[in-house]
Amino acid sequence: MQIINIKGMNNVYTSNVYLILGEWKKMNDPSTLIDVGSDPSIIDVLNKMNMGVGKKKVDQVILTHNHSDHMSILPQIIKEYNPIVYAFSPHIEGATNVLADGQTILIGDQYFEVIHTPGHSSDSVSLYNASKKVLFVGDTSVMVRGLDSGVYEEDYINAVKRLAQKQVRAIYFGHGDPVFGNGQSLLVESLRNIRQSMRKEAQTG
Fold first, then answer.
1. For the chain, which domains are there?
2. Is the overall model pTM greater than 0.85, yes or no?
3. Closest Cα to residue 156, out of 166, 144, 146?
4. According to the model, what pLDDT value does residue 51 have?
5. 23-40: string of b/e by CB count within 10 Å (b at 16+)?
6. Biggest alpha carbon–alpha carbon distance for the chain
């Protein structure tokens, strides 16, 4: 599995756009974009890339959630490549397949588990591969620092708890650089900080 962060050439606010590739000669390994961002110049970048003999530039798109910085150029991507488009929300125009919590999906040459992680948005999902211990989280916050106090939605706490139970080596975020090494320790620390801040809130509230 090869993971490439596609960088556009325009100075616009956009999410990370990850291109996931499988083996060079395997036609059944779908070239996959995780999010498409808001910079249309990534299409020029993609068109200059060699995905392998006879392979499409983009077979499928998986949206981590419905915010515009992660998906506003979806119409251009669809027009250019006609990919299958997956999203958790059934209301995203252009999405052809609705994701379900717990389903598995082939991305490149690896199967990923879809994990519903509401909090940043109601339709946020993370994608986890147990074999490579890789986690894509979109904008789901898994770097929560210690706070004096705080209140968090139960669905979000449960989502972080689920992620913290996974064996994670690398975490790829919707914005910023990935974390390599023991990603699970980061998830466990975030869950601990959430619980501590909520205890402080309960004591002072």
1. 2-204 (3.60.15.10)
2. yes
3. 144
4. 79
5. eeeeeebbbbbbbbbbbb
6. 63
